[in-house]
TrEMBL record:
Entry-linked PANTHER family: PROTEIN PATCHED, PROTEIN PATCHED HOMOLOG 2
Keyword entries, A-Z: Glycoprotein, Membrane, Receptor, Transmembrane, Transmembrane helix
The species this protein was found in: Piliocolobus tephrosceles
Subcellular location: Membrane
The keyword Transmembrane appears for this protein: yes
Protein name: Patched 2
GO BP terms, alphabetized: negative regulation of smoothened signaling pathway
GO cellular component: plasma membrane
Length: 1146
């Protein structure tokens, strides 16, 4: 072997051989970073070599561990409860909800089943007798639903919610009332006699036909029963509730009906009623005072005349209220009808669900297909069914997505040279990632993290796409192993080159999803934590188990076995030549025929003396014909594998045993070297790239202004379904929400009445609150309570003035007068509880409209026991509930004079209706107004908070954007720190973070153009985009950082080595996401498939187009400078740096 000539005599294109070249000594300023990376790469090298030596054991143990974790999927719990999914953890809403459940229990008082009727021809007036007749037909069909379960028949009258059933001492009347008491049905039919047809109760009295609401006149019935029973108290109850003649005194919608009662106003005239006039002001249930259904609850799309009179409407709505499962269980517990079936709350829930499903089914089929009207039906069970369907795993899509990925991985890694092909590696890599995803989800299940729709619908595909990226990277790097690398060190060398990138991308992905967990929505927090755990499991699989697979495949290749069919030898396998480095003089290669170039790979280690940190750059010598290289000798050859080296050797020496086809030599690395990099790195191309990406950024900033907040149920439910049609009609015509203003404990209700009235007034004045009719008092417990006290005070005053009540006797007075008598003598003093002198000196309500504090809780006990209809209508839900107390006017013992006071209240509520809430901005405005009213009341000592679905599900938007910006900023800072720590180059880390920030802004802007609204789900995707974007940028940046030469040359080299794995990774991610496009849920397609596809394309463009251009202009100086020397004492000066691609700068 000949000695290398002195450094000054070497030709510019010469690269010294690896075995005789001296180490490349680094400038002192970068010694520490490279020493740290050398140490880290040394660890990776040792890891790879160890795995290769024990590949079988590692593979067996890895598969065993991952398989065991995957078994955790058996205990996975899928959460579909909306409150558990969407209420912010630890927020004031969560605390308020906990307080409500602590006082009242888990369930609401009732559940709603709704029918909405609209004309098939949009905009048509629906206030006609014919349209109301069709509504009656559908409502009747729904109200007659019966289901048979547990050997019993369950109809509406058994399971419906009944408001304020009174307790009557007369047993016969009590049984009759129990059978007849009507269900609460809010319907426009209640304005007419036909509303009685929806009530299914009936009672029997001797000598009379069956008593039903269609023929019941309560006033006439009481007159007939008067001689046989004392019904004075019941009569007063009906009078106070203003029941009157109930339904028989209302006009008949169809006066020709044979059952239309004679007492109906239009019975004799036989004229159809004016529907618009009858519905003006709303309708009433059987009680005019306590059951008033406002227009907005019954009619949608209303139009009014100049004087405000109702002219037309486009939609009708009827609402059937059912008991909750607990109420139904308590109602029939111990009843003779259920004593033989082991009655339980679970059975009660099953009965309700079965009835609701049947209700929806029959209601939707009630009208013929050719009818002019259409019915949309919905129930709470329908919503639960939608959420369950939304959360189910689509086995077909999962299997299809993974088969597609298997096919792509296999085809991508197949080679014409069968012995050097890696199709089996591709198949095994995808299957390994699939197992890692399953094990990660199993670990989540074992940790108690509940699954949801995002977990089942999205995460399997997203994790597959992300995990396969690193599989492609390792496989590409393994095929490009240096030819002189010992066989037993191939895996160590591969991890040494690529392990840093894999570690960096995985850490950033996990960090991104962990930062997304800052979004305080339980569903998205669970999704983010699951994604982070799955990414972690995939990282372990790729770094530990996949190298074992590659090592086993290396043995197959060494034995010249076929790919996939490894039991057979290759019939035409290329000869593998070990091309050893050799010293070449300048006379070896004829000038003008070929240039000797070097593939630069960066490895760092500490010198034996531990005095210098050096970077070894083993050149990879081979011959490259100059006419085929657009960059001349400025870009190293892609020939890193033994296959490519052999091909070049055969071209030069004409020693090939079997030549491959010309098309077989084309690959993505070839394209990057010979077409893409030369074009991209031209000056005018750089300018065009910067202008185009600047325009995209500016357009995205404008698109960001178009993004609206919100997520409606119509976005989740599949379009074209009956459920979607109902929700669309409800959102358009009946955007009403029942809410409550809850007052807590911690203050004295008796002494805070004025503050409570003021709070109610402030809340009522909010723009979104539906005001009560001008002729009706506010529907709250405090108003009803005060009104009731004023009523019995008036009765007492009359009885006192007439002498029926005296200081010593109330027996001759009215029921109300006697009640007032008992309340007026109460002192609230345990020692002297009664003072008869107060009969003439005290009033139950003073001139200011306030109840005397000493009487407040005793009066509450009497009101709750004596006015069940008013209590039910107020929806007060007192806690602790006041004690039961029965009034007996004829009790002469005196014990009945003592009234037990109610305990101080810890929970009560004022009901309200919110209207006109169409957009998220409307909800936010209403929430802010309600919170401000509660805050102002808090200054007066009243502890209150609003409650209801708008506050549960929309309050997150008050701080969602702030939370989003905070998470993104924290993640960008973390990404910078992680990149700076592992790359040991803050300059490069800054460029990476700049590109990631641009991607996030551009994705946000494109969401605005796509009409994707900002909710917790897009926020998670936007936050995760930072971590996913690292997959596309860090490989290029690391390749640029660890090569030598000018910026243009280093950018080109980085592109050549990373273009193929990054592109394959992007395609694999897109294939993983492709299955989301087949989802039945438009929500999945728009919010996940579209957003993640745009993110992947943006990552590909920014990683392979923008970042190389930025690096070629603003990139950091090279970490390594090629210097040749004769001996350790002789060093050469650093190579010159500058722009342009000149051969001298290699």
């Amino acid at each position: 072997m000949t000695r290398s000539p002195p450094l000054r005599e070497l030709p510019p294109s010469y690269t010294p051989p690896a075995r005789t070249a001296a180490p490349q000594i680094l400038a002192g300023s970068l010694k520490a970073p490279l020493w740290l990376r050398a140490y880290f790469q040394g660890l990776l090298f040792s890891l790879g070599c160890g795995i290769q030596r024990h590949c079988g054991k590692v593979l067996f143990l890895g598969l065993l561990a991952f398989g065991a974790l995957a078994l955790g999927l058996r205990v996975a719990i899928i959460e579909t409860n909306l409150e558990q999914l969407w209420v912010e953890v630890g927020s004031r809403v969560s605390q308020e909800l906990h307080y409500t459940k602590e006082k009242l229990g888990e369930e609401a008082a009732y559940t709603s089943q709704m029918l909405i009727q609209t004309a098939r021809q949009e905009g048509e007036n629906i206030l006609t007798p014919e349209a109301l007749g069709l509504h009656l037909q559908a409502a009747l069909t729904a109200s007659k639903v019966q289901v048979s379960l547990y050997g019993k028949s369950w109809d509406l009258n058994k399971i419906c919610y009944k408001s304020g059933v009174p307790l009557i001492e007369n047993g016969m009347i009590e049984r009759m009332i129990e059978k007849l008491f009507p269900c609460v049905i809010l319907t426009p039919l209640d304005c007419f006699w036909e509303g009685a047809k929806l009530q299914g109760g009936s009672a029997y009295l001797p000598g009379r036909p069956d008593i039903q609401w269609t023929n019941l006149d309560p006033e006439q019935l009481l007159e007939e029963l008067g001689p046989f029973a004392s019904l004075e108290g019941f009569r007063e109850l009906l009078d106070k509730a203003q029941v009157g003649q109930a339904y028989v005194g209302r006009p008949c919608l169809h006066p020709d009906d044979l059952h239309c009662p004679p007492s109906a106003p239009n019975h004799h005239s036989r004229q159809a009623p004016n529907v618009a006039h009858e519905l003006s002001g709303g309708c009433h249930g059987f009680s005019h005072k306590f059951m008033h259904w406002q227009e907005e609850l019954l009619l949608g799309g209303m139009a009014r005349g100049p004087q405000g009179q109702l002219l037309r409407a486009e939609a009708l709505q009827s609402t059937f209220l059912l008991m909750s499962p607990r109420q139904l269980y308590e109602h029939f517990r111990g009843d003779y009808q259920t004593h033989d079936i082991g009655w339980s709350e679970e059975q009660a829930g099953t009965v309700l669900q079965a009835w609701q499903r049947r209700f929806v089914q029959l209601a939707q089929q009630a009208l013929p297909e050719n009818a002019s009207q259409q019915i949309h039906a919905f129930s709470s069970t329908t919503l639960d069914d939608i959420l369950h369907a939304f959360s189910e795993v689509s086995a077909a899509r999962v299997v299809g997505g993974y088969l597609l990925m298997l096919a792509y991985a296999c085809v991508t890694m197949l080679r014409w040279d069968c012995a050097q092909s890696q199709g089996a590696v591709g198949l095994a890599g995808v299957l390994l990632v699939a197992l890692a995803v399953a094990s990660g989800l199993g670990l989540c299940a074992l940790l108690g993290i509940t699954f949801n729709a995002a977990t089942t619908q999205v995460l399997p595909f997203l994790a597959l796409g992300i995990g396969v990226d690193d599989v492609f990277l390792l496989a590409h790097a393994f095929t490009e192993a240096l030819p002189d690398t010992p066989l037993q060190e191939r895996m160590g060398e591969c991890l040494q080159r690529t392990g840093t990138s894999v570690v960096l991308t995985s850490i950033n992905n996990m960090a991104a999803f962990l930062m997304a967990a800052l979004v305080p929505i339980p569903a998205l927090r669970a999704f983010s934590l699951q994604a982070a755990i799955v990414v972690g499991c995939t990282f372990v699989a790729v770094m530990l188990v996949f190298p074992a697979i590659l090592s086993l495949d290396l043995r197959r290749r060494h034995c010249q076995r076929l790919d996939v069919l490894c039991c057979f030898s290759s019939p035409c396998s290329a000869r593998v030549l070990q091309i050893l480095p050799q010293e070449l003089g300048d006379e070896t290669v004829p000038v003008g025929i070929a240039h000797l170039t070097a593939t630069v790979q960066a490895f760092t280690h500490c010198g034996a003396s531990s005095q210098h940190v050096v970077t070894i750059l083993p050149p990879q010598a081979h011959l490259v014909p100059p006419p085929s290289d657009p960059l001349g000798s400025e870009v190293f050859s892609p020939g890193g594998s033994t296959r490519d080296l052999l091909g070049q050797e055969e071209e030069t020496r004409q020693k090939a045993a079997c030549k491959s086809l010309p098309c077989a030599r084309w690959n993505l690395a070839h394209f990057a070297r010979y077409q893409f990099a030369p074009l991209l790195l031209q000056s005018h191309a750089k300018a065009i790239v910067l202008v185009l990406f600047g325009a995209l950024l500016g357009l995205s900033l404008y698109g960001a202004t178009l993004v609206q907040d919100g997520l409606a149920l119509t976005d989740i439910v599949p379009r074209g379904t009956k459920e979607h049609a109902f929700l669309s009609a409800q959102l358009r015509y009946f955007s009403l929400y029942e809410v409550a203003l809850v007052t807590q404990g911690g203050f004295d209700y008796a002494h805070s009445q004025r503050a409570l009235f003021d709070l109610h007034q402030r809340f009522s004045s909010l723009k979104a609150v539906l005001p009560p009719p001008a002729t009706q008092a506010p529907r709250t417990w405090l108003h009803y309570y005060r009104s009731w006290l004023q009523g019995i005070q008036a009765a007492f005053d009359q009885d006192w003035a007439s002498g029926r009540i005296t200081r010593h006797s109330y027996r001759n007075g009215s029921e109300d007068g006697a009640l007032a008598y008992k309340l007026l003598i109460q002192t609230g003093d345990a020692q002297e509880p009664l003072d008869f002198s107060q009969l003439t000196t005290k009033k139950l309500v003073d001139r200011e409209g306030l109840i005397p504090p000493e009487l407040f809780y005793m009066g509450l006990t009497v009101w709750v026991s004596s006015d069940p209809l008013g209590l039910a209508a107020s929806q007060a839900n007192f806690y602790p509930p006041p004690p039961e107390w029965l009034h007996d006017k004829y009790d002469t013992t005196g014990e009945n004079l003592r009234i037990p006071p109610a305990q101080p209240l810890e929970f009560a509520q004022f009901p309200f209706l919110l209207r006109g809430l169409q957009k998220t901005a409307d909800f936010v405005e209403a929430i802010e107004g309600a919170r401000a009213a509660c805050a102002e009341a808090g200054q007066a000592g009243v502890h209150a908070y609003p409650s209801g679905s708008p506050f549960l599900f929309w309050e997150q938007y008050l701080g969602l954007r702030r939370c989003f910006l905070l998470a993104v900023c924290i993640l960008l800072v973390c990404t910078f720190l992680v990149c700076a720590l592992l790359l040991l180059n803050p300059w490069t880390a800054g460029l990476i973070v700049l590109v990631l920030a641009m991607m996030t802004v551009e994705l946000f802007g494109i969401m605005g153009f796509l009409g994707i609204k900002l909710s917790a789900i897009p926020v998670v995707i936007l936050v995760a985009s930072v971590g996913i974007g690292v997959e596309f940028t860090v490989h290029v940046a690391l390749g640029f950082l660890t090569t030598q030469g000018s910026r243009n040359l280093r950018a080109a080299r980085a592109l050549e080595h990373t273009f193929a794995p990054v592109t394959d990774g992007a395609i694999s991610t897109l294939l993983g996401l492709l299955m989301l496009a087949g989802s039945h849920f438009d929500f999945i397609v728009r919010y996940f498939f579209a957003a993640l596809t745009v993110l992947t394309l943006l990552g590909l463009l920014h990683g392979l187009v923008l970042l190389p251009v930025l690096l070629s202009i603003l990139g950091p100086p090279p970490e390594v400078i090629q210097m040749y020397k004769e001996s350790p004492e002789v060093l050469s000066p650093p190579a010159p740096q500058g722009g342009g691609l000149r051969p001298e700068e290699i």
